[in-house]
């Protein structure tokens, strides 16, 4: 393969534009002999004759014209590469890979991506659903650049591998059957539900969150049914089979879009047959964080995604 030396190709292009070795040397702050030497070296590397004497001037050969046609394409591509690299350095281009748990995707990640598409269309965000343990494995191995998780299931702030950014304190409301005796009870507290049958997952983060919240309110929840799928939980609550804690961020993300039910005093809109109540006094919350590999948080593209996630978290409805 021929040696296409960019510096020498630029000298050839300048000679083509200005017509003489002297003018080329002046434009490039070189001596005429240095210009001639560089072009001789280029001709030797490419294996073709580039210049022919024409009186006191030189003329570019047909081979030189062919070389320049391809060189112009190379120069144009390099200009595009420079522009794209500059955009990357400014955080306006490139790709950021995000690992996030399921309810965070519609509530936080999607709004952040929509805003970035509007403000920085050259910046691509690739989303991968992953719960905490998997998300941090992906982050540590470099398969994602940012992980969204609940603080309770993230590595500690002292972990040297990651930097954590607090995003949101997400309140937990309670879902009751619409005809439940406490559905319209003013000032409903979590402790008031100590004797109720509960619906939550048999294992995993949501099981731990429900159990911890109830224990903090002074009781151990009786698990009547085990389910992790929200449509199954709604159906069982509506059928009067039990009560369940519901993350408000998940409701904002659309898990309640099965038909809107009425809201009792102190309540929020929920699926048909379900009364979704805001708890008083001891309302539990789950804390959502973003984590990146320590030291990477200053990367411009990643910083823009973090800023968009903060903006999406700040736009959540205020707590009631």
TrEMBL record:
Q: Which GO terms describe its molecular function?
A: DNA binding; DNA-binding transcription factor activity
Keyword tags? DNA-binding, Transcription, Transcription regulation
Q: Which PROSITE patterns match?
A: HTH_LYSR (PS50931)
One of its Pfam families is: HTH_1
- Coiled coil location: none
Q: Which GO terms describe its cellular component?
A: protein-DNA complex
Q: Which residues form the HTH lysR-type domain?
A: 4-61
Which family does the similarity line name?
Belongs to the LysR transcriptional regulatory family.
Which named protein is this? LysR family transcriptional regulator
């Amino acid at each position: 393969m021929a040696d296409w030396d960019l510096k020498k190709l630029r000298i050839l292009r300048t000679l083509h534009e200005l017509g003489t070795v002297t003018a080329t040397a002046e434009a490039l702050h070189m001596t005429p002999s240095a210009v001639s030497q560089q072009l001789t070296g280029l001709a030797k590397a490419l294996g073709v004759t580039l210049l022919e004497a024409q009186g006191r001037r030189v003329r570019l050969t047909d081979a030189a014209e062919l070389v320049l046609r391809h060189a112009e394409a190379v120069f144009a591509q390099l200009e595009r590469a420079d522009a794209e690299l500059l955009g990357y350095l400014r955080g306006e281009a490139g790709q950021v890979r995000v690992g996030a748990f399921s309810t965070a995707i519609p509530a936080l990640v999607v709004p952040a991506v929509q805003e970035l598409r509007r403000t920085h269309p050259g910046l691509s965000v690739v989303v991968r659903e992953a719960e905490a343990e998997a998300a941090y494995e992906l982050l540590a191995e470099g398969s994602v650049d940012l992980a969204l998780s609940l603080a309770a299931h993230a590595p500690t702030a002292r972990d040297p591998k990651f930097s954590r950014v607090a995003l949101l304190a997400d309140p937990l409301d309670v879902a009751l059957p619409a005809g439940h005796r406490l559905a319209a009870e003013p000032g409903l507290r979590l402790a008031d539900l100590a004797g109720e049958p509960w619906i939550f997952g048999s294992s995993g983060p949501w099981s731990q969150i429900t159990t911890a919240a109830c224990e903090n309110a002074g009781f151990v929840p009786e698990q009547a049914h085990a389910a992790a799928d929200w449509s199954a939980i709604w159906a069982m609550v509506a059928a009067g089979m039990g009560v369940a804690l519901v993350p408000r961020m998940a409701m904002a993300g659309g898990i309640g879009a099965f038909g809107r039910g009425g809201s009792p005093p102190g309540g929020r809109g929920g699926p048909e047959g379900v009364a979704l109540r805001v708890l008083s006094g001891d309302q539990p919350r789950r804390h959502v964080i973003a984590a990146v590999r320590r030291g990477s948080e200053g990367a411009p593209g990643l910083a823009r995604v973090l800023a968009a996630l903060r903006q999406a978290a700040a736009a959540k409805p205020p707590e009631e």
